Amino acid sequence: MEDFTPKRMPHWDYMWQDEKGQQFVGMFLFPERKQEGNSLFKIKKAIRDAFISKKYIPMTILYRNDFLNLDARVWEIDESESLVTLKDLEGNYYDVRISDIMHITHKRNERKSE
């Protein structure tokens, strides 16, 4: 019997050999990623709550390839284009996509809005 070498087959199929010398062909099955949709739902709910409360809330956004930690107020929501306009404490406006809001919290970390 010739030497067995594991080979990668197309479509995530693999071949391997166990300790007894039996050859197997199989496929790796990855779990579904249900967390992504649930996370986006939570972010949208937090944005909606922040818009209704009209308070400055700590959040992390992705803006022009940089992560920004802001105390910002949700100024406007455009759900047709998935855009949110934020206003920070200094008066700067940021137009970001809903998917670019990484983290939003309602708890104040001993920061006070002016």
Note down, in words, how this protein is organized:
The structure is a single chain. The strands form two sheets. This protein has a five-stranded antiparallel beta sheet with strand order 6-5-4-3-7. Strands 1-2 form a two-stranded antiparallel ribbon. With 114 residues, it is an alpha+beta fold. The chain is elongated and about 75 Å long. It has one helix and seven strands, in the order ββαβββββ. The model has no long low-confidence stretch (mean pLDDT 76). The termini are far apart. The chain has a domain at 36-104: SH3 type barrels, CATH 2.30.30.140.
Total count of helical runs of at least 4 residues? 1
Largest sheet: 5 strands, antiparallel
Integer-rounded radius of gyration: 24 Å
What order do the SSEs take from the amino end to the carboxyl end, as H and E?
Answer: EEHEEEEE
Per CATH, the architecture of the domain at 36-104 is Roll
Structure class: alpha+beta
Spatial strand arrangement across the major sheet: 6-5-4-3-7
The portion of residues forming beta strands comes to 35-45%
Helix content estimate: 10-25%
Structural key phrases:
two-stranded antiparallel ribbon; SH3 type barrels; elongated; 17% helix; 114 residues; alpha+beta
Topology:
Elements: E1 13-17, E2 23-27, H1 35-53, E3 57-63, E4 66-78, E5 83-88, E6 93-97, E7 101-104
Antiparallel strand pairs: 1-2, 3-4, 3-7, 4-5, 5-6
Brief overview:
The protein is an alpha+beta fold and 114 residues long.
